[in-house]
Each structure stands twice: as structure tokens, then as C-alpha cells.
Amino acid sequence: MNTIHSDYPDRKNDVICHCSGTTTQQIIKLIDNGVDNLERISRITGASAGCGACETVILELLTEYPGFKAESNSLAGPKMSL
Q1: 3-class SS at 23?
Q2: Can you tell me the distance from the alpha carbon of 1 to that of 54, in angstroms, rounded to the nearest whole number?
Q3: Could you tell me the CA-to-CA distances from 60 to 15, 64, 65, 68, 79 in Å, in that order?
Q4: ∠ at Cα 50 (77, 31), nearest 5°?
Q5: How far is the C-alpha of 62 from the C-alpha of 28, rounded, in Å?
Q6: Secondary structure element (H or E) that encloses residue 49, with its range
Q7: What is the pLDDT of residues 36-66, one digit of tens each?
Q8: What global pTM score does this model have?
């Protein structure tokens, strides 16, 4: 199992989503347990489902995980031209 928790010893209790109260530790635990995309993390924790300000931080945590797939990690739908 690949883990990233050792990279964030001082930030584990930081709240990264103030809308849902989700902490860095909660996100890291999900990633360590195989939850490897933003949509699943959002559905489980509620993070990034409100204002979306935490999306960048969550994606940064995900990019440090070896199995990260950028193309499957966006909550934004396809871009549409008007």
C-alpha cells in the first residue's frame, strides 16, 4: 500500500474544507485506502461540494499519490461554448 501520510505530519488536523469541516487527515486516510479521485472524495466527505475552494488542495494531495490520474480528477463538466 502506498501512503502519503508521512509527508504531512504537521498538517493532519488542518481543516481544508470549511464548508464540510473535512481535514487533511481525513483526505489522506481516504487516499491511503484507495479513494483516488476528487469526485469520490467529495461524495464521501462533502469536500469540494460547496464553494469549491478546497478543490486545489485536495488535488495537490492526490497528485502526490502514485496512482493519481489527472484526467479523472475534476468536478467540472465538459466545457461548453455559447
Answers
A1: strand
A2: 26
A3: 15, 7, 9, 10, 22
A4: 75
A5: 9
A6: none
A7: 889 999 999 999 999 999 999 999 988 887 6
A8: 0.70
Q: Tell me how far the alpha carbon of residue 40 is from its chain's centroid.
A: 9
- 82 neighbors 45 (Cβ within 8 angstroms): no
What is the rounded distance in angstroms from the CA atom of residue 76 to the CA atom of residue 1?
29
pLDDT mean across residues, the chain: 78
Q: Which amino acid is at 70?
A: A
* DSSP secondary structure letter of residue 71: G
CA-nearest of 43, 78, 82, 36 to 61 is 36
Question: What grid cell was written down for 51?
Answer: 464553494
Longest dimension (CA), the chain: 46
Q: Where are the alpha helices (DSSP H) in 1-82?
A: 24-32, 38-45, 55-63
